[in-house]
Design brief:
mainly alpha, 15 helices
Length: 297
């Protein structure tokens, strides 16, 4: 049991980012490096045999990917219809719902002792499939054509996810005697990193957040929470192990909101990016609540 609560850390960093927004905004470029370092730590805790088992019996992986690209876009469309959002906000939700899982989901899976190997594999596969599925889903639900920079997406995933994890695995192989020390250090480092990232995201979008209407806030929360619930429920229906249930719920509900913001800003307006910006803050907070809950179990 860690001495520091992730929720408390998030609360502290949110207060700091609100008090010193310019300082946190300047740290924006550090987000990929923070995630990369956390992924390195995860590599030290990966079990290679577990990865082999997942690839041999791919039903967990396939189920998660199918749910990822079905529940979230359909749910986004449903919420847009229910809340009757204006076109730009509606489009922002559709883009968000059509994105793959993000690297933050791997961090949350790591902290709450879900199936980390499955989580990382899901990130790889869903990111690769996003090249086809994300623009297709956006076109189907919003009737908008969007081009994704394939090489940029692959490059960022490689350097933030794949390379750090491989380096972590290599360190685990070469420094076996210090493995336990590393495993004790990196969960706490991961919690601090996630809290810092949330603080940075808040400071970047503080102007947009101050002008939010209640229905956008509610819709973002529902999008994430219903995704978590349905992911866990369906995994339970298939009688998956508890660590896999956690992973499915996390992977389904935690979108790559960074990609959503990038696509919105590249092709549309800052207002279209608002749902993804808000989601990037909310889904880490809700996932942190899950971490607290599952640690108590």
């Amino acid at each position: 049991m860690y001495k520091f609560s992730l929720i408390l850390l998030i609360f502290i960093f949110l207060i700091l980012s609100f008090t010193f927004p310019s300082l946190f905004t300047e740290l924006k470029s550090s987000i990929p490096y923070l995630l990369g370092l956390v992924m390195f730590g995860m590599g030290t805790s990966l079990q290679l045999q577990e990865i082999k088992n997942i690839l041999t019996e791919p039903k967990w992986l396939l189920t998660t990917i199918i749910l990822q690209f079905s529940i979230m876009p359909f749910l986004a469309f449903f919420l847009v219809v229910i809340f009757d959002f204006p076109k730009e906000i509606a489009l922002g939700f559709i883009i968000l719902g059509s994105c793959p899982g993000g690297t933050a989901s791997n961090v949350i899976a790591y902290i709450c002792k879900a199936n980390l190997s499955l989580s990382i594999l899901c990130t790889f596969v869903s990111t690769g499939l996003a090249v086809f599925f994300t623009p297709t889903l956006i076109f189907l639900f919003a009737d908008e054509n969007i081009d994704i920079e394939i090489l940029s997406l692959i490059k960022s995933t490689f350097f933030i996810v794949f390379l750090p994890v491989v380096c972590g695995i290599l360190m685990k192989i070469f420094i076996r005697n210090k493995e336990k020390t590393l495993l004790k250090f990196f969960p706490l480092f991961s919690e601090i990193s996630i809290a810092l990232i949330i603080g940075i995201i808040f400071s970047i979008n503080i102007d947009s957040f101050s002008n939010l209407s209640w229905n956008i806030l509610v819709a973002v929360a529902l999008h994430n929470l219903i995704g978590l619930f349905l992911g866990f429920l369906i995994a339970s229906f298939f009688k998956f192990p508890m660590d896999v249930k956690k992973t499915v719920a996390i992977e389904v509900a935690m979108q790559n909101s960074g990609l959503g913001m990038t696509l919105a800003l590249m092709h549309f307006t800052k207002l279209v990016a608002l749902p993804s910006a808000l989601f990037s803050l909310w889904h880490n907070i809700s996932a942190s609540g899950l971490v607290y809950f599952w640690k108590k179990k």
